[in-house]
Write a structure and sequence with these properties.
0% strand, 107 residues, mainly alpha, 6 helices
Length: 107
């Protein structure tokens, strides 16, 4: 079943996912790799991603809570910061290697 769940995340159409579908997927997760792959491949590309983070991060079941935080991590990497900087995944490698933290602009 975990392999089928990961495959479903890879072939999903994120724009067509509903809140009920995403919640159903998360409730059925029983493995970290399924959780992380679903967040990386499908959920982060959904317009419902940020709402799902808030819902799942406060839940008690292990993989529902993990999905909230895993999705937050992935969404933060893909989000445009809004301050003129490129999102982490769109920056050239030379700007990412050895970087420990982002410093705010001076001035």
């Amino acid at each position: 079943i975990p392999d089928a769940q990961m495959l479903a995340g890879m072939v999903a159409e994120p724009a067509k996912l509903t809140v009920a579908q995403m919640d159903h997927w998360v409730a059925g997760m029983r493995a970290w790799d399924v959780c992380d792959q679903s967040c990386t491949n499908a959920f982060v590309k959904s317009p419902l991603a940020w709402e799902a983070i808030a819902r799942w991060a406060v839940r008690e079941p292990e993989f529902e809570k993990r999905a909230g935080f895993a999705l937050l991590a992935v969404a933060a990497q893909h989000a445009e910061p809004g301050d003129g900087l490129l999102a982490w995944d769109r920056r050239p490698e030379r700007l990412k290697s050895g970087l420990v933290a982002r410093l705010p602009p001076l001035g």
